[in-house]
Amino acid sequence: MDTIFTRGPSLTSRLVLATVLSVLLIVLDGKLDTFSNVRVYLNSLVSPLQYMANLPGEVLNQTSRALTTQRQLLENNAQLTRQNILMSEQLQRFEVLRQENDRLRTLLGSPVRADARKMVAELMAVDNNPYSHQIVINKGTLQGVYEGQPVLDDKGIVGQVMQVGTTTSRVLLIADVTHAVPVRVLRNNVRMVASGSGQLNRLVINHVPHSTDIQRGDMLVSSGLGQVFPEGYPVGRITDVIRDESRPFAIIRAEPAAQLDRLKYLLLLWPADAPQAPIDQDEAVNES
Amino acid sequence: MSLSLRHYTIAISLLVAQMLQIMPMPILVDPYRPDWVLLVLGYWTLALPQRVNVGVAFLNGLVLDILLGTALGIHSLALSLVVFILAANYQRLRNYSVWQQAFMIGLLAALYHLVIFWLQHLLTDIYFLFDYLWPVLTTMLFWPWSFMILRKARRQLKVS
């Protein structure tokens, strides 16, 4: 019988080799982050696997779409039309306000805010690595996605692009423990930093003195200070303010505005100073 | 056809395992997802230790690292370690009944998750939740079935 010991190095030396290589990789990739360029190729290499894993869910979606009845479609259509009318009414007012704001800003001598270009992306296989909150989307360098790009959904900020591949990219959610967003309170412009807690439905705000004017229900919007997220997008809503005087700071928790547990369609933003431009022009929505 | 299938059975089963590992699942079922790659690798290590051992485990761990977005080397180290233990004791483990094997696989899955948690803990400050250990139980329960399916595939296709 052909035993393992007759071929090549022994089992123990293989383990030693694998361990040394792994530890080397962990230090180089995890601590020193030397692999960010190689990661693009590695991610592109495994993306067929991700597309294949995504296939059954996609097929299920398609069939359920094909099976929707005409009545459901009509109802859906009526609801969307209603929503559209309401939104376009808001948009009319918004347009006037925007122009007024631009004029005031030019009067004050501060730069007029530029519009960001956008592209719709779709969620792919949600990874199950329980230690960090990440998602994979179906756009990559071929569409002009870059590292550190802000990602939103229809309710608010979702996260930022962490790794890119040619056709897929990985997004780190704002609820991850390693993520933090600079925010301000919409009501009174108090600035703070909202960090992820590791739970999808909670953000924590650290180092806020007891005397700070902040209450339950306050809206947090991005302050634009970190140079990653553009200013003024909703991040979350304050859920708890605990002022325990025996602690140095108040305990403040918030709930993310984006529905991080039921993401499907996402919006990629290219701010005016982005290092790259969206590439697929017919998919990129250019706001006038 | 059967000849080519025979040659690629191990590779195909591992690919399927990787796919199952990242397939999107409803949020209710997701925490209970068994470690498919560990199950399939474990079977082939016990069945054909001269073909599948630490090297294959290391490479599969790397693919898993890329797919799951962890730092490179974390899953490869954990998988190499577990497969080493299996390959070193394959003759003893083969004589166990399937349920005894399942128990051992459960223990190894617990080791696998603890090694991954520990390595991740070194890189970022994460806290341990008991939920992280649910896959140990499901991996244990899935072992007999995956064992039977893979043994059937191995015998019918005469993989050796």
TrEMBL record, chain A:
The keyword Oxidoreductase does not apply. Residues 124-270 form the Rod shape-determining protein MreC beta-barrel core domain. It comes from the Bacteria. It holds the Pfam family MreC. The keyword Cytoplasm does not apply. Keywords: Cell shape. Belongs to the MreC family. NCBIfam families: mreC. This is Cell shape-determining protein MreC. It comes from Bowmanella denitrificans. The gene is mreC.
TrEMBL record, chain B:
This is Rod shape-determining protein MreD. NCBIfam families: shape_MreD. It is a multi-pass membrane protein. InterPro entries: Cell_shape_determining_MreD, MreD_proteobac. The chain crosses the membrane at residues 6-29, 66-90, 102-120, 132-150. Involved in formation of the rod shape of the cell. May also contribute to regulation of formation of penicillin-binding proteins. Keywords: Cell inner membrane, Cell membrane, Cell shape, Membrane, Transmembrane, Transmembrane helix. It comes from the Bacteria. It is found in: Cell inner membrane; Cell membrane. Its main location: membrane. Belongs to the MreD family.
